[in-house]
Amino acid sequence: MHAKEPQVQLPDHIVPRRVVIIGGGFAGLFAARTLRRSPVAVTLVDRRAHHLFQPLLYQCASGILSEGQIAQPLRAVLRRHHNVRCLLAEAAGVDADNRVVLAVTPDGGTLSLPYDDLVVAVGVRQSYFGHQEFAARAPGMKTLEDALEVRRRIYRAFEMAETCADPREQQAWLTFALVGGGPTGVELAGQIHEIARRTLDREFRTIDSSQARVLLFEGGDSVLTAFGPTLARRAERTLRGLGVEVHLRTLVTDVDDEGLTVREQGRTTRFEARTVLWTAGVEAPPFAHALARATGAAQDHAGRLLVQPDLTLPGYPQIRVVGDLMALDGLPGMAEVAMQSGAYAGRVIRHGVEGRAERARPFRYRDFGSAAYISRGRAAVRAGPVRVSGVTGWLVWLLIHIVFLTGFRSRLGALASWFLVFATGARRERAFTGEGERGHGAPPAGAGDRAGRDQPTADRAH
Amino acid sequence: MHAKEPQVQLPDHIVPRRVVIIGGGFAGLFAARTLRRSPVAVTLVDRRAHHLFQPLLYQCASGILSEGQIAQPLRAVLRRHHNVRCLLAEAAGVDADNRVVLAVTPDGGTLSLPYDDLVVAVGVRQSYFGHQEFAARAPGMKTLEDALEVRRRIYRAFEMAETCADPREQQAWLTFALVGGGPTGVELAGQIHEIARRTLDREFRTIDSSQARVLLFEGGDSVLTAFGPTLARRAERTLRGLGVEVHLRTLVTDVDDEGLTVREQGRTTRFEARTVLWTAGVEAPPFAHALARATGAAQDHAGRLLVQPDLTLPGYPQIRVVGDLMALDGLPGMAEVAMQSGAYAGRVIRHGVEGRAERARPFRYRDFGSAAYISRGRAAVRAGPVRVSGVTGWLVWLLIHIVFLTGFRSRLGALASWFLVFATGARRERAFTGEGERGHGAPPAGAGDRAGRDQPTADRAH
Q1: Do the domain assignments include residue A3?
Q2: CA distance A426 to B417
Q3: Cα–Cα 20 to 30 A to A108, which of A147, A199, A420, B69?
């Protein structure tokens, strides 16, 4: 393409090093930031125009935050990075020998992006462990689209319960199943509990929203396993205290239109739950497989790419994989790992350009801890040897998120939103749209496929 | 359905009068509010769970306001109206003789809603004057889904321009066509102008966003016809001063994938514009036709129902049509008309219950004026004989909207959002999602249908 290259101040005879970053999440963004003052020409490619603050995605799903509060346009965030150009396109493949990335624009056009250094930061997508058919029934929580779909399902479930004649179906609509006991599953469970008991209090005439059941299914021995056994136990106690039904060592074997089937302690049980949300696994996206094929790189069981200690692919020192897609020493797919690995990649590239290309130190992750919000006044925070939970944990959680949210305005706005929810339970971002419907009356997907359902046709209340 | 009836305090032998209100827009909401203390059992049915503040829909589309700021859940707004129950369902038809409304829930279940009084407040939908095929190419601006689609198209157009190799296609992506010169079209034109010149300033490396062309096509003799000739002329001057290309007495004859064709002064011209937005006409939704068939009511050219002076349908004194769908004395489809007609219907029903059922006074609309926002510091406001424009108009416009927005919190939030935009041009709600895509990688609709487009395959910048 004849697109203008980013502006870089160099003597005319020097050609700036081209860095292509695929992915504008934490890893890609921090790589770009670290290269800010380097004499390199950076191209950041993402199939979405925004940077997503994933740690708070569950709050967009639960109606506390709007999309704009957790997703900022990449080109706005990088506006003053004059050596970065942002392109809306999806990376399709890599010609690793000729050092070219092939990308596709939303309307099907193709772009060729040559590089001297490539930073692969595409992240991972929700995994259904081979059961792709579950995806339509049980939305994940990795993207903005996911969050809006989850929001729609949560609030719509209460609406559906309100119009139900059959008590059993009504209860099924008031039953929410979360698959996966990591931070996202735990946070969502807490949110649905608060929505049912506080936000929707006294809004319904037929149902009692507080009768909602929240089921949390986890295949391992504990929730929040990554937080260590002490916090995991406290979190489980908190959840059970809220009334969340926690099922550990439980595998989900099927998800259908009306509920899900699980295997727990060798026994198979079916639960009727019209809303099933899936946060149980992640896997590499198609681009990762294309990259592995092009470079011969090895992948782990989830498709993540195994990298050298300096985050490069074996045999391809110009290609680094960072963030969630990177498989190194069992590092978890967390925001903090993504930030640090992305910044590391940027630093190494910068040193290379500055002539400090001595053998790069290996990447070393500094674990500053993790935080998960369970419920109002209760969170779990782990920082080094420090473990805090309860109200203290909640305050620390608040502080951490305020600091890390991008932009002062976002922080102020999010703080205001949180305060409102804490004080009143009101969630301001509850509006949900019809599935894919526009104002001209195209029927929503799914309407009519339950026609003739068992409903009395006359209201005989009088 | 055996759903519990709303709670009404009456002696046991008295059965509360059942009022069914179809539609939770301004008309339906004001009808419900007016019935607050009446001994009636109100059922409010809407196919969406939210009340939409349509006058500010264009600000959601332009990325200033989030969905939650202009759409509040109906059952939250009516939480303290203990005689109202809200049901998420779409009215499909009416058995006018047996006085029953038939409605369909989102999953295809059916509801029968008997009534003693029926208030039809379903509104209208965007009309393409018989050219339904334009709808997919040119989104309207009547619903929340529309606004999000418009937002997606506006911001994505600039992204597409940035990756274009062909200068002509690039310019086509930077060309925005608005069909319809009423308040919504004018407001959107002004918003796109501001986005191009202020919001996106310096965010792009290839394109200059301020080179965007905004075309406004109007079939009549002036924009903002309903505001009278003085304000219409001023608004036109303002628009042209901003660089908006205003085409009056122009009819759009075709909309295709790459642009639109118009007939102006007997001459046919084609404009290449990848973003076409349609606000040119409205028409009755299918339910209106079903109602007309059931009652023999007459409809105007747009399908609106002709009502008696007391807003009832001839021969059916229990059925009132209010708001945009009502055809009476040429009253326009505006928020103020909807509010007043809805309140009138509620009042008449209340008087009937209170035994004051003497011949109802006819509905008389009190025209307090209209306001339209054109651009930063410029709006047009008409109130009785008063005509204000420019900065004064803008301040009055601001005041009116603050007063009418539902809820103090909304006003404060919207005020903060507007102040931010006014001061900095920053629009906080720019995040747009892929069309119907979720995080598991289902391809967005439309990808690939332009594969093999004329793009150089090698970046030869060096």
Answers
A1: no
A2: 19
A3: A147
